[in-house]
Amino acid sequence: MRLKAPVYRLKRQARLLSRKSGIPLHKALDEIAATMGYRSWSQLANSERSNERPAARILASLKPGTLVTLAARPGHGKTMLGLEILVEAAMRGRSAGFVSSEFSLFEIRKKMSSLGGETSESEDRLRLCLSDRIAADYVVEQFSNAISGTVVVIDFLQVMDQHRSDPPLGDQIRQLKLFASSKQLSIVFLSQIHRSFNSQERSVPDFRDMRKTNPLDLRLFDVGYFLHDGVLQARTFSERPVL
Questions:
Q1: Is 107 left (phi over 0), alpha (psi -120 to 50) or beta?
Q2: Residue 48: left (phi > 0), alpha (psi -120 to 50), or beta?
Q3: pLDDT, tens digit (0-9, with 9 covering 90-100), for 66-118
Q4: DSSP-assigned letters across all residues of 61-85
Q5: What is 54-235's CATH number?
Q6: Other beta carbons less than 10 A from residue 128's beta carbon
Q7: Which helix (H) or strand (E) holds 152?
Q8: Distance CA 202, CA 35 (A)
Q9: For the chain, how far is it from start to end, CA to CA, in angstroms?
Q10: Which residues form the SF4 helicase domain (predicted)?
């Protein structure tokens, strides 16, 4: 059974119900579970663990010091999935950051609100870094004081390759890989897929389909997550499935 809301939102509803009705939290959790069609909260939790959301699956695999990419063609949900990863991270107590030159603060808050991300808990842990100029130096500056375990999503990889005054993209990614390792951060680059990708030949793209305007050693990424028509696959550069 697919939940109508994320587990963290249901837990928040239960806490509010517990305070408002004066009932123990475990009873409030059971009542919320009943509204979702489950006999108890434990049954809901067990069912959700067996059918974990893509964002939760990705977050669980993001070890400190890793560099990954989340790639898809336009309109397939990579931005929303990237934001959902950050909301999941914030609600689980991890610091998070979103770096973008594509969206306004209003647009990001609207997207987060649709995910249930506009909460006092997540706002304290989620930092939004919006700039017209995204480059490795900017990311390093913004997160130089980030704590270990912070998750950063950069929207998106290809915008870092637009200004000749910036270092080559390959050098920037090497710089951020060293930065992620030294600070023990997890950095996720949203990435475009080349329009030549043919879903009739392969149902989901892979590293071969990532759009590049200049040389980039894709082995710098520990893993790539590829999304198409609601199907998510994770692969290493050697194309060995890892999820």
A1: alpha
A2: alpha
A3: 999 999 999 898 999 999 999 889 888 899 999 999 888 899 888 887 776 55
A4: H--TT-EEEEEE-TTSSHHHHHHHH
A5: 3.40.50.300
A6: 16
A7: strand 151-155
A8: 40
A9: 22
A10: 150-213
The more confidently predicted of residues 25 and 8 is 25
Among the listed residues 228, 224, 226, the one whose alpha carbon sits nearest the alpha carbon of residue 199: 228
Beta carbons of 71 and 227 less than 8 angstroms apart: yes
Q: 91 by DSSP, 3-state: which?
A: helix
Distance CA 228, CA 23 (A): 44
CB atoms within 10 A of CB 76: 18
Cα 221 to chain centroid distance, Å, stands at: 15
Amino acid letter for position 70 = L
pLDDT of residue 152 exceeding 60, the answer is yes
- Map out the domains of the chain as residue ranges: 7-50, 54-235
